[in-house]
Amino acid sequence: AKKCGKNGYCWFEPQMENELQFRNALETGIREGLVNGEFVPYYEQQIDLENGELTGFEMLARWHSPRLGVVAPDVFIPIAESMGLIAELSEQLIEQALEDAKEWDADLTLSVNISPLQFNDPWFPQRLLKLLVKANFPPQRFEIEITESCLHDNVALVRSMIVSLRNQGIKVNLDDFGTGYSSFAQLRSLPFDRIKIDRSFVSAIGREGGASQIVNAIVSLGQGLGMPITAEGIEDDETLDNLRALGQLKGQGYIYGRPETIEQVRERLEGLGRL
Ligand code: C2E
Ligand code: CA
Ligand code: CA
Ligand code: CA
């Protein structure tokens, strides 16, 4: 069977005849990978679109599997979730990323993606704080990104989680906005620090009718709620120009390069004099 992730990572396992075998191999691989430290943080630049300056990095998980090569998170995160291992996996990555980010200039932030399964653990804020304390990393430089699927019906509970994280100084950002089912009522009662517009809207700007109107509406919504906006998935100058015309946004995307290893990040920061 041949498997291709949507980011173009491919591998061949001719002896694996069916999905079940493949899945079992992945599960075994993930267990071994956790023990052997095969999960590696990559980093994507986050840019202030007004002045083009780097403000920080989003950590994106990669699996350096000895058998499969570099595996994308869309492949292994859902499986780690179903195995009940997502918290352990994520915490391993966050520990590494905190050590990496400690070297960066003190005005650069580190942002990490959090699974709904992790976020729904009432002990999550404490677990996270423990990692920050252990690494001696200032919570003010740390941000989490949660998706709309974290926002279950118990709005009061979600709210208290966000408030408790923010009370520690951690920023809580709403990721992939527009793709889920969150209502305006939820958004109004949940104190997010920032809203991230999903790539599907950003990449459609200038190509599909209505896309820039939607992005425009989200930007106004954010302004009205006092929540600044990040646009993800910026790939070309035209999109960048359109976004810059909309207001004070942050942005990310391949236009600034692909997610990088810590070695590449170090080189970049050295060049900028920000290491
Ligand atoms: P996301 O949080 O929406 O992250 C953005 C994804 O879009 C990343 O894919 C990034 O490499 C890709 N991307 C960035 N700029 C562009 C662009 O200009 N064009 C295109 N086509 N793509 C762009 P990646 O790294 O494969 O991550 C996929 C998803 O996996 C992430 O989506 C996030 O939801 C999840 N993920 C990654 N790391 C973690 C993690 O440590 N924990 C959890 N729970 N989820 C993670
Ligand atoms: Ca994200
Ligand atoms: Ca996204
Ligand atoms: Ca410095």
From TrEMBL:
Protein name per the record: EAL domain-containing protein
Domain (EAL) ranges: 23-273
The organism's place on the tree of life at top rank: Bacteria
Taxonomic lineage: Bacteria, Pseudomonadati, Pseudomonadota, Alphaproteobacteria, Sphingomonadales
